[in-house]
Amino acid sequence: xxxxxxxxxxxxxxxxxxxxxxxxxxxxxxxxxxxxxxxxxxxxxxxxxxxxxxxxxxxxxxxxxxxxxxxxxxxxxxxxxxxxxxxxxxxxxxxxxxxxxxxxxxxxxxxxxxxxxxxxxxxxxxxxxxxxxxxxxxxxxxxxxxxxxxxxxxxxxxxxxxxxxxxxxxxxxxxxxxxxxxxxxxxxxxxxxxxxxxxxxxxxxxxxxxxxxxxxxxxxxxxxxxxxxxxxxxxxxxxxxxxxx
Length: 245
Description:
Blueprint: E1 2-9, E2 14-23, E3 26-36, H1 41-55, E4 63-69, H2 75-92, E5 96-99, H3 101-106, E6 114-121, E7 127-135, E8 138-141, H4 150-158, E9 164-167, H5 171-181, E10 186-188, H6 198-211, H7 231-244
Parallel strand pairs: 1-4, 4-5, 6-9, 9-10
Antiparallel strand pairs: 1-2, 2-3, 6-7, 7-8
Helix pairs in contact: 1-2, 4-5
């Protein structure tokens, strides 16, 4: 039985959308729609999903599964994506699965044979750094999601002796910091590859499907990945702490 899959990610300044057709553990990429949408994902996401479905002769009620990039990334962007995915999945009565936004970036480089360092922008002068072992058709995550200052991430990467291919939208601010720390064994991927794509999302979804790491599809269990408290949460913690003094 075939399952029509909708995948999307709004955790960065770009929106990534894809349609896939799943047969067992195999997922065929049918179509993608990727575009920059700085601070506009909430205005463009659902209309773009509807247009992609129409362009491919599909209707929303044909969807069997929804996949969302659940971060880490922009707090607002992650919330938009996850909330939209939950609404669609609940409304259609279909499973919802979450995949890492950073994994979707790494899968864009799955035609390479190298160590990949994804450096995503975490704002507040911080980044989300993760290393991946990439071989043609295979991506292996080597560490958990973390948030840290870029100079500390660069120092960690500098301790690795083999070449590292750097990617991620954090390089828009910090590329020179990383190349200075790794002067002899780093290269930077082309800028269009720094953010998730629809194809990367489908690839990350298929990899998680094959490894059994997707969960049971309950929309209530798919949560945003922030790696730290939001500004509002930190302000509330500070208010409580100051009130106790």
